[in-house]
Write a structure and sequence with these properties.
Elements lengths: L1 E4 L6 E5 L2 E9 L13 E7 L2 H13 L4 E4 L5 E3 L4 E8 L11 E5 L2 E7 L4 H10 L15 H7 L2 E2 L2 E2 L4 E8 L4 E5 L21 E11 L3 H18 L18 H7 L6 E2 L2 E3 L7 E3 L5 H19 L8 E3 L4
Parallel strand pairs: 4-7, 5-7, 6-18
Antiparallel strand pairs: 1-2, 2-3, 3-4, 8-9, 9-14, 10-11, 12-13, 12-14, 15-16, 16-17
The structure holds flavin-adenine dinucleotide (FAD).
The site of flavin-adenine dinucleotide has 36 residues, from strand 5, helix 3, strand 10 and strand 14.
């Protein structure tokens, strides 16, 4: 591996054979998460192939840096103090192209491998158009397939791990291994990989799904309905989706609304008027504003209903 620093906070070129990465010191993280907040990462790089990811992990290990993985950054709250170590943004040119899909079997059911870097929305739309059932609900979901698997993202009664067969992941030693669905122990918005965005030494490279067959026209119409529903019910500003998990038997949004908290503000962070379980950065919000608003909402809902709301979003970075 060769490393070439161009001086100051200039990018560092890291190469191993034909694999090349650009590592940016003191990089902005707000550009890589949908809340649009967060301080600088010590280092940041974009990687997507097995070789690139392995090289990134190896470079971090050689420099004794912790690694934080970002997918689309749509379920994250990044600290104002930034992120220590190396942030790896999982991006891959061509990940949203049909050539990125590897169809291993196409009979009554379809066995298809998709890159972790592929946008979930694109995969859902492509599956529907090809007449592959089970994933139309993905249309409109921000972020990438890798992040969706880690979170066991879901909507409209579906969860991404419902039809997941396995994932392949690269480790810090550069090895690629396949892990069956059961290894992730998926449950509501949770897998064993969730909650450890920092100090991650395993990066998902792709995911294998077994999908049923359906009618392409009907699936595309279903996907349109889901997209329209999102547009109608969810805010479009800078946010990270549902802030809290739904408690058993009720909805966080309903509890927050019943506590009269719609429109409540801390700094630039505001509880959405459109959907009470969303907090929107309406301009200059800091991560601290968002956390303080989360605490305020938790406190008021607990007083009002006796229910403790559990965050669905993941805090990452340096919070001390
Ligand atoms: C407007 C809006 C609507 C939303 N609606 C929904 C919804 O209906 N249902 C739902 O479940 N969520 C929803 N979300 C939240 C979010 O979009 C999903 O959870 C999404 O699947 C996260 O994907 P991501 O790529 O952005 O993950 P990130 O936020 O980037 O990462 C999430 C976790 O996955 C890890 N990770 C990401 N990629 C990899 C990888 N390749 N290897 C290892 N670890 C990785 C990260 O380290 C982190 O721990 C919404 C968000 C927004 C902004």
């Amino acid at each position: 591996m060769t490393t070439r620093q161009r001086g100051g906070a200039a990018p560092v070129d890291v190469a191993d054979g034909s694999t090349r990465l650009t590592v940016q010191p003191l990089a902005r993280t707000d550009l890589f998460n949908t809340f649009r907040v967060g301080g600088p990462a010590d280092f940041l790089t974009r990687a997507g192939t097995v070789d690139e990811l392995a090289l990134a992990l190896r470079w971090a290990r050689e420099h004794e840096l912790p690694v934080t993985i970002f997918g689309g950054g749509s379920n994250m709250l990044v600290a104002d103090q930034g992120v220590r170590g190396l942030v790896v943004v999982v991006r891959r040119p061509g990940a949203r192209s049909e050539s990125g899909l590897e169809v291993l079997e196409e009979a009554d059911e379809v066995l298809v491998r998709v890159p972790a870097a592929a946008p979930s929305n694109w995969f859902g739309r492509t599956a529907a158009e090809r007449g592959w059932a089970d994933l139309a609900w993905l249309v409109g979901l921000p972020g990438n397939v890798g992040g969706a698997v880690v979170n066991n993202a879901g909507a409209h009664g579906g969860e991404i791990t419902d039809r997941l067969v396995s994932v392949r992941a690269v480790s810090a030693s550069g090895e690629l291994a396949e892990y069956p669905r059961e290894w992730l122990k998926p449950s509501y918005r949770f897998t064993t990989l969730k909650g450890s965005a920092s100090e991650r030494d395993l990066v998902l490279v792709d995911a294998l799904f077994r999908l049923r067959r359906g009618d392409a026209r009907a699936l595309a119409a279903e996907a349109d309905d889901y997209a329209e529903y999102r547009h109608r019910t969810q805010p479009t500003g800078a946010c990270a989706g549902s802030i809290f998990k739904n408690p058993p038997g009720t909805y966080s949004g309903l509890l927050i609304e019943q506590a009269g908290l719609k429109g409540t503000r801390v700094g630039g962070a505001v509880v959405s008027e459109k959907h009470a379980n969303f907090i929107v950065n309406d301009g200059g919000a800091t991560a601290a504003d968002i956390v303080n608003l989360i605490h305020l909402v938790q406190e008021r809902v607990l007083q009002q209903s006796g229910i403790e709301l559990e965050p669905e979003i993941e805090r990452t970075g340096d919070w001390v």
